[in-house]
Amino acid sequence: MTDPAEAAVAAAFHNEWGRVVATLIRMTGDWDLAEECTQEAFTRALERWPNDGVPDRPGAWLTTAARNHALNRIRRGRTEHAKLREWDTMNGPQDPPDPSGITDDRLRLIFTCCHPALPIEARVALTLRTLLGLTTAEIARAFLVAEPAMAQRLVRAKRKIRDAGIPYRIPPAHLLPQRTASVLGVVYLLFNEGYAATEGPDPLRVDLCAEAIRLTRVLHGLMPDDPEITGLLALLLLQHSRRTTRQNPAGELIPLEDQDRTRWDHTSITEGIAHLNNALNQGTPGPYQIQAAIAACHATARTPADTDWPQIAALYDRLADLTPSPIVHLNRAVAVAMANGPEAGLALLQNLEADLPDYHLLPATRADLLRRLGHHKAAATAYREALTLARTTPDRRYLTHRLNELTHVPERPDPRT
């Protein structure tokens, strides 16, 4: 059984990490110091809360502990006098209320981090790391880059903020649209990490998905006429509607075609489609709207056989024109395979080897298409390759199950030989 104090620290990490880090950044102007002192505060909480009890206001306790640790670090620094004078200045009268109109603390912090002086990928990565507590490894996998490369990207972003003197504050309301694309990217990747965790025993982190949906609702309330915000809200609702059917009680993954569609959250589906229609009616379809339209095709199909795969393939063609990422091309290959046959999908996969060298879903997709064709030896080889790359326990279980199935099925002759 989990210790109550440890559970309280874990909950505080989810709820308070970003706020504590942001407070320390505002006070010290030093991103690394803020993260280190916040981590120290959580370490002290693990040591003290089991004996002292969980405080009534965990966030305030953690902020005070982190602030005190930062002050001690500054006092021990080589520029003690100047830093303390700076500290006194920063802890003087508080800034007046900002004119942004954003009242949600976490969303305010995300907009603050997404400064237009930084490259868009750096903005998104920095926000995910600093304010939402994702690890550098998790962010690297989301961007399909090596962990050391992502670590360097984060270092460069922090250095640019420091050297350029970029202020850590939210812009006024009329400048928010300059940062909206970056903010949407943060929320989208946050949802993806919850919807399909890149590491660990559980493929679904409902807390991250729910937080992403909440943040998107707040954004939609602020900018209800932005079609991409509306499209993202539709996408997240449609995807999350399947959350209770994506794994069985044993924690094993259930493919979309085998899920019990009567258990999908049809209230969320109805709301998602309404938002999608409102967005598309504005006549400026963007990537999130197109992805929501794809999700709607799945959500409205009464049975797997009713899925409009030609329409999904056409939507992926359009999405690939707007965002030609390797993941989009992989999903497009699956849609083409379902619409036109496995051979058509396999032909498209050949072009993705160099772009997705360590992505387990590429060999897993190849294995599935080969299995559908009856080429079981080749499919088994691809499943084994996918197994070496898969990071989550449910992914490995699913791939192992598929691999074991092939040992009991005879090879289908290739009609071309």
Record the SSE blueprint.
Layout: H1 4-28, H2 31-52, H3 58-75, H4 80-90, H5 105-113, H6 120-130, H7 136-143, H8 147-164, H9 177-195, H10 206-222, H11 227-240, H12 266-280, H13 287-299, H14 309-322, H15 326-340, H16 342-349, H17 361-373, H18 376-389, H19 393-406
Q: What are the defining features of this structure?
A:
417 residues; mainly alpha; 19 helices
Overall description:
This protein is an all-alpha fold and 417 residues long. The protein has a domain at 4-69. It is 67% helix and 0% strand. The protein has 19 helices and no strands. The protein has helices at residues 4-28, 31-52, 58-75, 80-90, 105-113, 120-130, 136-143, 147-164, 177-195, 206-222, 227-240, 266-280, 287-299, 309-322, 326-340, 342-349, 361-373, 376-389, 393-406. Helix 1 crosses helix 3 (58-75), helix 10 (206-222) packs antiparallel against helix 11 and helix 11 runs parallel beside helix 13. The longest helix has 25 residues, at 4-28. It is globular and about 75 Å long. The termini are far apart. The model is unreliable at 92-96 (pLDDT under 50).
